Amino acid sequence: MEKKNQDSEQQINIELTEEMAEGVYSNLAMIAHSNSEFILDFIRLMPGIPKAKVKARVIVTPEHAKRLLEALKDNIRRFEEINGPIKPSNDDDSHFNFPISFGGPGGEA
């Protein structure tokens, strides 16, 4: 019985370097997937500059992508309970139509 309690109380120590803690700004995400992974590219698009840079790429399993989706939904729900609804942007640039192909089926957010 003691071993069961010890296992359920295991903790993971996560290291966050000062550089990583600063984060990167992204105002566009491109998402692609294969049968075994989801690829999330976080991009910074600057007004008036035709070339955008991928600032971070995260590759996850389909199972982790689904857990990430649920975690985002939960956090958005809690944010909106405190701060009110998040309103979509009315900017003309809010609906991007990029002819970018990552190969295979994909989407964008």
UniProtKB/TrEMBL annotation:
Disordered: region residues: 84-109
Domain of life: Bacteria
Pfam (any one): DUF3467
Protein's name according to its UniProt entry: DUF3467 domain-containing protein
